[in-house]
Automatic annotation (TrEMBL):
Keywords: Amino-acid biosynthesis, Aromatic amino acid biosynthesis, Isomerase. Pfam families: CM_1. It comes from Marinicrinis sediminis. It catalyses: chorismate = prephenate. The keyword Amino-acid biosynthesis applies. Its EC number is 5.4.99.5. One of its GO terms (molecular function) is chorismate mutase activity. This is chorismate mutase. InterPro entries: Chorismate_mutase_AroH, RutC-like_sf. It comes from the Bacteria.
């Protein structure tokens, strides 16, 4: 068994609570679907947002998902690098799995596809 980090990122159009919550759920579902794990397999989830996203904590969305109530979550502010992608939510899901590093599927949605075009797919 290994602990693997699974990366994911997405963007929202505006700093609005519902957009942030919906985008977070969409991203997490995409990561889970692509990598086939259950909440019980999760060590923890790190969540970062860019500095302009202040309407809510993205962790609120995950805490409301059935089965995810006990998964440790942590929100933080992304380093504000000049000319970096705005309105971005990033996840680092640390999962206990038998998958090898090259078998893990990282997920990049919406404007965040620009962060890792090599992993974002079509």
């Amino acid at each position: 068994m290994y602990v693997r980090g699974i990366r994911g990122a997405t963007t929202v159009e505006q700093n609005e609570e519902q957009q942030i919550l919906s985008a977070t759920i969409e991203l997490l579902h995409a990561i889970v679907d692509a990598n086939k794990f259950e909440p019980e397999d999760i060590s923890c989830v790190w969540i970062t947002v860019t500095e302009e996203l202040t309407a809510t904590f993205p962790a609120r969305a995950i805490r409301q998902m059935s089965g995810w109530e006990m998964v440790p979550l942590m929100c933080a502010l992304e380093i504000p690098v000049q000319n970096s992608l705005k309105n971005c939510i990033r996840l680092m899901v640390q999962v206990n799995t038998e998958k090898k590093q090259h078998e893990v599927q990282h997920i990049y949605l919406n404007g965040a596809r620009a962060l890792r075009p090599d992993l974002a797919g079509s």
